[in-house]
Design a protein that fits this description.
- The protein is an alpha/beta fold.
- The chain folds into 2 domains: 120 residues, NAD(P)-binding Rossmann-like Domain (Rossmann fold), CATH 3.40.50; 220 residues, 2-Layer Sandwich (Dihydrodipicolinate Reductase, domain 2).
- Helix content is 35%, strand content 27%.
- It has 14 helices and 18 strands.
- The strands form 3 sheets. Strands 7, 8, 9, 10, 11, 12, 15, 16 and 18 form a 9-stranded mixed beta sheet that branches.
- β2, α2 and β3 form a beta-alpha-beta unit.
- The chain is globular, with a radius of gyration of 20 Å.
- The N and C termini lie far apart (48 Å).
Length: 386
């Protein structure tokens, strides 16, 4: 199998490349990235004959499709705004595909992936991705499921890369139609900072307020559970407290609308200007605590007994005590490794169905959890009768 890694030199997708080199049997792993220097530095670090570099511009669709046609599967690490065009290229190239974001543009290409007998899994990092596996694991052990609450804490700098800055702007856009909850039979749009709930994350992260975010889990969990009586699905998240204070202030001052301003004769969005400052500042590119923490609650019934599952995850400390997990890599590895696992499961024929397939239907949770365990990422499962 030949794997093409779009954005493979970036901080997150490079972790998928490293993981594929260590754990997969892929015969070729190609890094496709506009940053040739970063790609060549990664190739030098890995020192593996299977890894090479190809210059690709995914917006040059005909050339991109011609390049991708030589590969079996694409690990798509591009940004949210590029996912529609990248998925279209993957589909026309006749490849399998997996991406990190899964915000919905991918599903329009379902028929083309089916025609080519290929699978594309939108959104398989930590969130969405591993959170979907947690929900399915619990839901599969119950006859009826009434409540699903997905929560996560992403402890990383607010602007360590342009794509992360873009994610911040996207998720807290005041007019965003996809920020929804599922409640009593319908999807309901909510504003930023809606439905605050205190979530107890595994140590060292602790208790934090979390708010509704526009993640794919709300809609994919509904698709998976719509025949099991689901009544409430909420997806929440938080970043480090300082980040949230800043985003809350930007929201309350109206900056998240990104209204244009003029500086020295040049027009720029106010939030774009703030984002650029953050990307160039120490405050925007560092934080006190690094890593990822998931918390998933599923409530339902089995054999007439009401049950609750609570699943969390932990990983090695970011304090330097475990090689390879230092500081920011404790976050980026948590996101990039699931992408690699999904690619490898597809390569080994362990995925389910064809077309554009929600994570809950694409993979078996037990298999994903075993693969995570090999990488020192541990899933903790608690359950009790209510």
């Amino acid at each position: 199998m030949k794997v093409f890694c779009l954005g493979g030199a970036g901080k997150i997708c490079s972790e998928a490349v490293r993981d594929l080199v260590q754990f997969s049997d892929a015969e070729q792993i190609t890094i496709g990235d506009p940053n040739a220097d970063a790609a060549r530095s990664l190739i030098e670090e890995l020192n593996d004959d299977r890894v090479d570099y190809v210059d690709i511009d995914i917006t040059d669709e005909q050339r991109a499709i011609a390049i991708l046609e030589g590969y079996d599967i694409v690990a798509d690490g591009t940004t949210i705004k590029l996912n529609e065009v990248s998925t279209e290229c993957i589909a026309h190239a006749g490849c399998h595909g997996v991406n990190l974001n899964g915000f919905g543009a991918e599903y329009q290409f379902d028929a083309l992936f089916r025609k080519n007998d290929r699978i594309h899994v939108p959104g398989f990092g930590m969130t969405p991705g591993i959170t979907d596996m947690m929900v399915r694991f619990a839901a599969d052990q119950m006859e009826r499921v009434g409540i699903v609450r997905v929560s996560h804490g992403a402890f990383r700098p607010i602007a360590f890369s342009p794509s992360i800055t873009e994610t911040t702007i996207f998720e807290y856009d005041p007019s965003l139609a996809s920020r929804v909850v599922f409640e009593d039979g319908e999807f309901k749009q909510v504003p930023p900072f809606a439905r605050e709930r205190i979530i107890e994350l595994p140590e060292p992260y602790g208790r934090h307020p979390q708010w509704i975010i526009p993640h794919a889990e709300t809609r994919t969990v509904y698709e998976y559970l719509k025949d099991k009586g689901i009544r409430l699905i909420e997806t929440r998240g938080t970043w480090p407290p300082k980040n949230m204070l800043l985003v809350r202030a930007l929201y309350e001052w109206g900056f998240l609308g990104n209204d244009p301003i003029e500086i020295a004769g040049a027009k720029i969005g106010i939030l774009d200007a703030i984002s650029r400052y953050l990307q160039d500042s120490e405050a925007g590119t560092t934080t006190d605590l690094y890593g990822y923490a998931l918390h998933v609650q599923v409530v339902g019934t089995n054999q007439g007994m009401k049950r609750q599952f609570t699943l969390t995850h932990t990983h090695p400390s970011s304090d330097g005590s475990v090689s390879g997990w230092e500081q920011l890599r404790a976050y980026t590895r948590c996101v990039g490794i699931p992408l690699s696992i999904a690619v490898d499961l597809i390569v080994r024929g362990r995925s389910q169905d064809i077309g554009v397939v929600i994570p809950e239907r694409a993979f078996k949770p037990d298999e994903v959890f075993r693969e995570l365990d090999k990488r020192q990422i541990l899933i903790h499962i608690g359950q009790k009768n209510l």
